[in-house]
Write a structure and sequence with these properties.
The chain has 72 residues and is an alpha+beta fold. The protein folds into two domains: 1-33, no CATH class; 35-72, N-terminal domain of TfIIb. The chain is built from two helices and four strands. Bound molecules: zinc ion (ZN).
Length: 72
């Protein structure tokens, strides 16, 4: 891989997207790697089905949340 020194996970998008978007993408990807905790059973194991739709593997509840994270 090339150009990974500064842009990290967003490096695959190449140049031309701007610093703001690159930083945003990196932040989102880091958050997505962290397991989210279910607001219903409080256990980590919530997966994002689509933007704003989350599903808990432990208790099976499906709920709406923020597009990329549950809490922010
Ligand atoms: Zn749950």
């Amino acid at each position: 891989m090339v150009r990974t020194k500064k842009v990290k996970a967003a490096g695959r998008f190449g140049a031309g997207y701007g610093t703001y978007l690159r930083n945003r993408l990196n932040a989102v990807e880091i958050l997505q790697r962290v397991k989210q905790s279910c607001p219903h059973c409080k256990k980590p194991g919530v997966k994002r089905l689509a933007a704003g739709i989350w599903h808990c593997e432990k208790c099976g509840v499906q709920f709406a949340g923020h597009a990329y994270t549950l809490n922010k």
